[in-house]
């Protein structure tokens, strides 16, 4: 009875979700969290996967590919590609560096730059906003980016509000645009937050698929304008209320990865770097989000380049990328407990799909 009870308890504690990871040459691999092994391969039609993103309702997976700037739509339930097309046409290359799906699942918003190969030169246009209609499989509308913002570049992180009415671009400022006409309706200056002495604030990406819709929680880095001392902290942003809050924690290290939060939103995890080359030190950092304090940290044997994720139940952490394997670390002990071999080079980030409730 004790053995049966132990096994049942261990099974109950195991994550029950699915992991989606893009791999070379044209696949998205599906990993069962409970079994910790690959259970399916989704064959892509337009090339090598570049990025993955999950819809708000967790029913659709959007895949971008590198070969000809393609977009593929995957039905999560059947794990089948339901739509695929490329944006390149002839000698025109449509490169995009920001990407967000409309909550309705019919449109894709992005920032694009079009280049065209001529006989004696390349013509490169300025960056523009673009709307891609998934049914028509093409760009149906473009709009100019305000000149002062286009000159700054760096449109790496985009988000659409839950009602689909506003588009957010995150950088040193948060730019809010009306999705009907791409007019700039508000600018939130992150370089002037609540605490004096903070400047040059950089806000990281959003959480993974277990995040609360409409709410972003991220690590931020800042420096004071006098001695350039770098600090980091936790930033919270409400897309509906258009409000943000910074909580400074301590001095910055050489580098930090994104913040991943457990489903109960009480604990956050990140990876911190210090040093360079053979002297580089990789550490897990664990945050108590109720008190906004660094609770503990643990050094681990990190790769020279990798990505970081968390399981659907917050019990495991994943180190992956720049290789063929996903390393599984216990979130409590911060120790390596398993390695999943994908037998293919990983080319994208990871999407975590919790078990349907």
List keywords for this structure.
357 residues; 5-stranded antiparallel beta sheet; globular; 2 helices; mainly beta
Query: Mind telling me the C-alpha Rg?
Result: 21 Å
Q: State the end-to-end CA separation.
A: 29 Å
**Could you give the count of β-strands?**
30
Spans of at least 5 consecutive residues whose pLDDT stays below 50 are 1-11, 196-210
Total count of helical runs of at least 4 residues: 2
- What helical percentage do the residues reach? under 10%
Mean pLDDT: 85
What structural class do helix, strand and pairing data support? mainly beta
Give the CA-based shape. Answer: globular
Biggest sheet: strands, sense, closure?
Answer: 5 strands, antiparallel
Q: Hey, roughly how much beta strand do the residues contain?
A: over 45%
Structural commentary:
This protein has 357 residues and is mainly beta. The chain is 5% helix and 53% strand. It is built from 2 helices and 30 strands.
């Amino acid at each position: 009875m004790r053995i049966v009870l132990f096994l049942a308890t261990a099974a109950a504690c195991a994550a029950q979700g699915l992991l989606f990871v893009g791999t070379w040459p044209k696949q998205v691999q599906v990993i069962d969290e409970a079994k910790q092994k690959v259970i399916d391969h989704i064959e892509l039609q337009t090339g090598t996967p570049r990025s993955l993103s999950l819809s708000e309702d967790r029913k659709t997976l959007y895949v971008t590919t590198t070969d000809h700037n393609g977009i593929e739509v995957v039905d999560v339930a059947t794990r089948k590609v339901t739509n695929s097309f490329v944006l390149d046409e002839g000698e025109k290359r449509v490169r995009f560096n920001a990407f967000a799906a409309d909550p309705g699942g019919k449109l894709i918003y992005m920032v694009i730059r079009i280049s065209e190969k001529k006989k004696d030169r390349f013509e490169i246009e300025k960056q523009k906003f673009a709307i891609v209609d998934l049914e028509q499989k093409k760009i149906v509308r473009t709009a100019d980016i305000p000149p002062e913002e286009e000159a700054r570049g760096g449109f790496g992180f985009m988000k659409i509000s839950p009602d689909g009415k506003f588009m957010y671009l995150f950088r040193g400022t948060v730019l809010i645009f009306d999705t009907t006409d791409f007019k700039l309706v508000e600018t939130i200056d992150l370089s002037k937050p609540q605490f004096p002495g903070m400047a040059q604030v950089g806000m990281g990406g959003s959480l993974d698929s277990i995040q609360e819709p409409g709410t972003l929680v991220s690590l931020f880095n800042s420096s004071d304008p006098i001695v350039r001392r770098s600090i980091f902290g936790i930033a919270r942003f409400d897309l509906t209320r258009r409000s943000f809050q910074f909580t400074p924690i301590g001095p910055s290290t050489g580098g930090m990865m994104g913040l991943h939060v457990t489903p109960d939103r009480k604990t956050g995890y990140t990876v911190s770097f210090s040093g360079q080359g053979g002297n580089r030190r990789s550490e897990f950092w664990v945050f108590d989000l109720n008190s906004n304090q660094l609770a503990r940290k643990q050094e681990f044997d990190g790769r020279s380049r990798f990505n970081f994720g968390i399981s659907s139940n917050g019990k495991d952490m994943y180190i992956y990328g720049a290789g063929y394997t996903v390393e599984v670390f216990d979130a409590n002990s911060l120790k390596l407990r398993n390695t999943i071999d994908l037998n293919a080079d990983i080319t994208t980030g990871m999407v975590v799909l919790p078990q349907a409730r």
